[in-house]
Amino acid sequence: VRLSAIASALLPDGLRRRVALGWAAATLAALLGLSAVPGVSREEAAAMAAGSRDAAAWRDPGAPRPAGARAPALSDGVAAAAHGALAPIAGDARAWRAVTALLGAFLSSVLALLGWELAGLGGALLAPALFWLVPRHLHHALAATPALAAAALWTATALAWRRALSAGSRLSRGRWTATAALLYGLAGAVRPDGWALLAVLAIHALVVRRTAPRDGPAPRGDRVLLAMLVAGPLVAIAASPALWRDPLALVAAAWPRGAALDPGPLVAMALAVPVALLVAYAGGLLHGLLRLGRALRAREPAGDEALLVLLAVAPLALSLLAPGAAAEGLAPLLPAMPPLALLAARALDACARTLLPARAGRALAAIAVVVLYPALRASIHHFPHGAAAWNELAGGAPGAAARGLPRQAGGEAAAAALPEIAAHARPGARIWWAGVAPEAVGVYARDGRLRGDLALASSPEDADLVVATLDGGPRDAEYAGWSALRTARPVAAVYVDEVPLVFVYARAGGWR
Amino acid sequence: VRSAAASAVGRAGRSIASGAAWAWARRPPAPVVGALVFALSLAGASAAGIVFQARLASRLPSRLDWAAVAALLERDGRPGDAVVPSPAWAERVRALAPAGVPVIVAPDLAREDLVGVRRVWLVALPDAPGFSWKPELALLARSGVPDGPRRLGAAEVTLLALSAPALPLAFLPDRIAAAAVTVGDRGCSPEGATAFACPGAGAVRVAREVRDVGGAPRPCLVAAPNPEAGAPLALTFDAIPMGRAIRGHAAALGAGTAPVRLAVQIDGEEVGAVEIPAGAGWRQFQIDTTRHAGGIEPLAFVVTAAGPDAPPVCFDAVTLP
After folding, report:
1. How far apart are CA B112 and CA A138, in angstroms?
2. Residues contacting residue A296 through CB under 8 Å, at least 6 positions apart
3. Which helix (H) or strand (E) is A506 found in, with range?
4. B90 contacts on A by Cβ (under 8 Å)
5. Which residues does chain A have within 8 Å of residue B282's beta carbon, measured at their own beta carbons?
6. Chain B contact probe: residue of A353, A486, A498 with most B CBs at under 10 A
7. B97 vs A contacts (CB less than 8 Å)
8. In sequence order, what are the residues at sequence separation of 6 or more whose Cβ sits closer than 8 angstroms to the Cβ of residue A61?
9. Could you write out the DSSP letters of every residue in B109-173?
């Protein structure tokens, strides 16, 4: 009797919630299981350094932020705090990435819940899969960077906003309003573009008001918006002691960095998402736009359509205003991907129901296999080099290299060379890491992936080995290694589909 | 006959029109058509993805293919040879090329000097995504009848003998150890065998380095000019075999804005100069030295900045017979 009571307390009522919980558990297990494998990019290393600083600011809020420090990100500090608690039991890299894994699980459950509301069981099962089987998404979920946190909080804020608008009782409305304001503040504290959510939701409120039935009460979004406007920044500042001395840094960081339009992230999206998923996303967005247009013309309620379409389109538009975002790959667009996955899931469900109404479930399963199989294969093939994953339109990693597209996010592929280095480097060898952040080398050493007797060299001239990462940018650091070691012939390398990501060079006698 | 043919055509046209009208009247509803198009697009994209992934491995060389390439280069390579990978990213060949055979990666082989190279081994991956024939065409245009291509699995190896190889009398960056460097009238002290540090402003130095200029590794002399006016940076080589020309290249490095002047002096007499604007890429210059041909002369390069915010420059030079 007790066991069943415990089980019923742990397992939520209803298939909908169980599917959401199942997705969350599976995602958490997968992300935690895989999180120790990928290397640490320069951006992740910067997040680690900033996180350690921000975590210290919680203990000493009066400490000034160093000049030129990157925009404060709440996720950095939380990741550092989790690292402090978990590193002794989970290992260094896994401890840094535990919060991202948790947010990934949260995002899976939100996607499953929203997918159910849009397309039933099929939608709940498909929506998270349509999101996770993009190799780049998995790459962001296995890094302690703010990208996945931003995507999860955008989606969760939208869910809370939707619940606040549709809540029946005043108590429920108040609860969801407070949740939306809290999540909005966290979204802004994680990444500055989170503040744009308010504008997106304001436009949505106008659409909802315009299409509300004339004979019924119109949903009141203005109070929710007001709560978000007032409480959001307060939540962000309260959660980020690093900002207490300079709260306007939030506004400054959110300001567009230039006026020129930069299509880079959109091109990256078109060339990085597996083509079958890209078609599913495009079809889902088109389906949503058609339904929205039909609802607006007929003056029928169009809240859900407008919300999903706005959430999918807003990050794409924002990325155009952020020059330099091209170098960040899909990270600026990541908040658009969960709504696109939801729209795609609903479009696939609608497609199956339209083509085979009597056997819609089987038809949906067949379509899901068709769409997801190539993406699953690409994810497995590219792991742990998710940032090297380019789709069929780009010609895969070789085609992307021929076009000069980035081969990795920033030095993380060096982790794949560590087993060779451990096997062949002479005892006590000094290594100069070109393009690899010192924090990343520290993580590898603490996790035991880098042999304990190997030392850091301060310059290529002092080194026995040079580990050079190739990211598609200038290679001066690698060539400095050639000059110092008097060789351009690598002793080891890491390739993805023959495209080199890492070269290891050795001084005579440095490699056994 | 004409009227019979016309009536037959008319009947056929009418039957096609009536068939089309019949089909149009019984067309599936728009949602079904939309769903069908969507499903077919998904199936097509999925099939394309699966085929691409399945074929990719066979479009790229296997370990065995690379071993065959390495064996061929080891057996037939000789001094004066170079290896050019195509596409340029196919740099696995760096680990396979024999020790005396350099690997050359350049964005535009038609304009590359290929100094000291008599024969080129073009190692191509013709089935690789994004492959271009441009490097092969550029090399064919400046060579005789090619030997090959020899197919080694997914790799193709072609040997091209250059029609007019640039065989220098001296490649000056490699002679830096024997050079003297001065800034104004003050001498600079050597830092190891490949660099000089100058007194005064800390950044003034000259070093033999390999720099990434225009997407290719360039062995060159990197000179950070003196920010003080009237104190040019001079790099003097005592005894250089002279030919009919000095050919060199120069590029500005870094973010400085002031142009840099690079003058060439033979035995104290200026024989030519080149202005290197800020942001300039890898530019070629050539100076006629016919009247010095056959002699051994002191040769100096004098670097002068037009302002305090001048970038370092990367330059090389060879004397050609």
Report:
1. 42
2. A207, A210, A211, A302
3. strand A499-506
4. 498
5. none
6. A498
7. 489
8. A241, A244, A245
9. GGG---TT-SEEEEEE-TTSTT--SHHHHHHHTTBSS-EEEEEETTEEEEEEEBSS----SEEGG
Contacts of A482 in chain B (CB under 8 A): 210, 217
Q: How many separate helices (H) and strands (E) can be counted in chain A? A: 20, 5
Residue among A468, A467, A470 at smallest CA distance from A401? A470
Question: Which residue, chain included where needed, has tokens 């990085």?
Answer: A272
Q: Which of B93, A483, B85 is nearest to A475 (CA)?
A: A483
Identity (one letter) of the amino acid at A101? A
Mutation choice for B interface testing from A370, A469, A471, A505 by most B CBs within 10 A: A370
- Residues with Cβ < 8 Å from A162, sequence gap 6 or more? A303, A304, A307
Q: Per residue of chain A (512 residues), what is the pLDDT tens digit? A: 466 666 555 555 688 889 999 999 999 999 999 999 999 999 899 888 888 887 777 667 666 666 556 666 778 888 888 988 998 999 999 999 999 999 999 999 999 999 998 999 999 999 999 999 999 999 999 999 889 999 999 999 999 999 898 887 888 889 999 999 999 999 988 888 888 899 999 999 988 888 777 776 666 788 899 999 998 888 888 877 666 666 666 566 555 554 445 557 788 888 999 999 999 999 999 999 999 999 888 888 778 889 999 999 998 888 777 654 445 667 888 999 999 999 999 999 999 999 999 998 999 999 999 999 999 999 999 999 999 999 999 999 999 999 888 899 889 999 999 999 999 999 999 999 999 999 999 999 999 999 999 999 999 999 999 999 998 888 999 999 998 998 999 999 999 999 999 999 999 999 99
Beta carbons of A394 and A271 less than 8 angstroms apart:
yes
The residue with tokens 């460097």 is B181
Q: Which residues of B touch A505 (CB under 8 A)?
A: none
**Residues in chain A closer than 8 A to B209 (CB atoms):** 479-480, 483
Taking an 8 Å Cβ-Cβ cutoff, which residues of chain B contact chain A? 31-32, 34-36, 38-39, 41-43, 45-46, 48-50, 52-53, 56, 60-61, 87, 89-92, 94-95, 97, 99, 102-103, 125, 128-132, 192, 194, 208-212, 217
Q: What is the end-to-end Cα distance of chain B in Å, rounded?
A: 82
CA–CA separation, B221 and B223 (whole Å): 6
Q: Each residue of A302-328: b (16+ CB within 10 Å) or e?
A: bbbbbbbbbbbbbbbebbbbbeebbbb
Phi-psi region of A284 (alpha: psi -120 to 50; beta: other; left: phi over 0): alpha
Enter the tokens of residue A379. Answer: 């994810």
Contacts of residue A157, Cβ cutoff 8 Å, sequence gap at least 6: A180, A183, A184, A187, A197, A201
Q: How many residues does this entry show for chain B?
A: 321
- Note the ipTM here: 0.86
Q: Is A227 helix (H, G, I), strand (E, B) or coil?
A: helix
Which among B60, B91, B211 is the nearest to A476, CB-wise?
B211
For residues A75 and A99, what is the distance between their CA atoms, to the nearest angstrom?
8
Mutation target vs B (from A130, A134, A279; most B CBs, 10 A cutoff): A279
Angle formed by the axes of helices A360-382 and A92-132, nearest 10°: 140
Residue A402 touches partner B, C-beta closer than 8 Å? yes
Question: Which structure tokens are listed for B217?
Answer: 């590794």
Is A384 within 8 Å of A37 (Cβ atoms)?
yes
CA distances B90 to A50, A113, A284, B218, Å, are 37, 46, 38, 19
Model pTM? 0.88
- And the tokens for A368? 């899901």
Nearest CA in chain A to B48: A392
A283, closest residue in chain B (CA to CA)? B38
